[in-house]
Write a structure and sequence with these properties.
alpha/beta; Rossmann fold; Serine Threonine Protein Phosphatase 5, Tetratricopeptide repeat; DNA Cyclobutane Dipyrimidine Photolyase, subunit A, domain 3; 3 domains; five-stranded parallel sheet; 5 strands; globular
């Protein structure tokens, strides 16, 4: 007979202990608990655009984050089970042994559908939802999702004027001991090697990067001037992968940014990081509002662009063989590292839609497969923006690739590095 306070925390995009609201709530009431993470069996299959959800670089990043998280859970008295299969089937199987399931809310359509399905299948259980993947609590937004603006600037102005971001929740110092006698489950087999080099996942690495970029180098103080770089660690915060995979929460990043501003300097560059956290929040809220329209050819505007899918041109773009040097260098960097700068993403997407005239969804799906820092709302929202079917009030936004090269790679160092290694 199951105890009334046995609980599971279902980790998804919250691979951390710090500022994990749902995990903290569960730890306060459960006598026994365990964390689980499931590598979804669907990730092993190609999607409708011919790409995988999970490529080798993000998989390696997630694996490193999970190994650290597992050790942290054990150090706090609990455990983390890393499983493989269908998340709903596995959780239903575990549901007979628990009374509570906690999870962090996420804007992703699939993630939301999974929660709906699980609640319907296990109506006798108590579900605990956290909101620490967002800067703002849903209850404090100055608009309903249905009435929120569909462009960024008015959304930003309303958020900054009428509400405040939430503070990180108190530190978790202990977790309930593991649940005994769980059923036999299919455990995930970790890879024997990683292609990432020094760029590994995990909460410790995320916090170390914040300390290094803020306090160690003061890079944040000149971020607005350097953020359009293409290569290296110093030109940007490099926090996107940690945020996308939940190794750190946006609330923690902002709290540490405010601390830096109070002790060192507050300027346009430090504000710009907050500005980009607001962009992330905007796309997450838009995805909550528009759902599957984020994946429609016509986007949230329901205005299909005049483009087609050409498999030959698509393959050339993927391989970095379009003939547009800045695009080809960027794609080769992506394929070799799982990373691409923000400026480069705009240029390769613009080329994809305008110069090559391709269906933007194939580009978005390829990014989903390749990027370490893939975030469903930000990725698909930004691709819609560049394709002219999303949140951009100006419509089609085409970049002059040669001019952009002259501005951001004037000595062609980045191009030479990747086209003539």
């Amino acid at each position: 007979m199951k105890a009334q306070t046995n609980g599971i925390h279902w980790f998804r995009h919250d691979l951390r202990i710090g500022d994990n609201e749902a995990l903290a709530k569960l730890s306060e009431i459960a006598e026994h608990s365990v964390g689980i993470y499931v590598f979804d069996e669907r990730w092993e299959h190609l999607n409708q655009w011919g790409a995988y959800h999970l490529g080798e670089y993000r998989r390696a990043f997630i694996e490193s984050a999970l190994l650290e998280l597992q050790q942290k859970m054990r150090n706090l008295g609990s455990d983390l089970l890393v499983l493989q299969g269908d998340p709903i089937s596995l959780l239903k199987k575990l549901g007979a042994h628990v009374s509570h399931i906690s999870y962090e809310s996420h804007a992703g359509w699939d993630e939301r559908q999974q929660v709906h399905t699980l609640k319907a299948a296990l109506p006798e259980l108590t579900f605990i939802e956290g909101e620490s993947n967002y800067l703002y609590s849903q209850g404090t937004l100055p608009f309903t999702l249905e009435n929120m603006p569909d462009t960024f600037s008015p959304t930003r102005r309303k958020l900054e004027k009428y509400t405040q971001p939430c503070q990180p929740c108190p530190k978790i110092t202990r977790l309930p001991p593991p649940i005994a006698n769980l059923p036999e489950l299919t455990h995930y087999v970790f890879a024997s090697s990683s292609p990432l080099g020094k760029y590994s996942g995990g909460e410790t690495a995320a916090l170390k990067r914040i300390d290094e970029y803020f306090w160690g180098t003061d890079g944040i103080a000149t971020y607005k001037e350097t953020r359009n770089g293409f290569e290296g660690w110093d030109f940007s915060s490099r926090l996107s992968a940690f945020l996308a995979n939940g190794c750190v929460s946006p609330r923690t990043v902002l709290a540490k940014l405010k601390e830096y501003e109070s002790q060192r300097v507050a300027n346009d560059s430090t504000y710009w990081l907050f500005f980009e956290l607001l962009w992330r929040e905007f796309f997450h809220l838009q995805h909550l509002k528009h759902g599957t329209a984020f994946f429609d050819y016509g986007g949230v505007q329901a205005k299909p662009p005049n483009t087609l899918f050409d498999p030959v041109a698509f393959e050339q773009w993927c391989l970095g063989e379009t003939g547009y040097e800045i695009v080809d260098a960027s794609m080769r960097q992506l394929n070799a590292t799982g990373f691409m700068s923000n400026r480069a993403r705009q240029l390769v997407a613009s080329c994809f839609v305008h110069e090559l005239g391709l269906d933007w969804r194939y580009g978005a799906a390829y990014f989903e497969q390749q990027l370490i820092d893939f975030d469903v709302a930000s990725n698909w929202g930004n691709w819609q923006y560049l394709a002219g079917v999303g949140a951009d009030p100006r419509g089609h936004r085409q970049f002059n690739l040669e001019k952009q090269t002259q501005i951001y790679d004037p000595h062609r160092k980045f191009i030479q590095q990747w086209l003539n290694p």
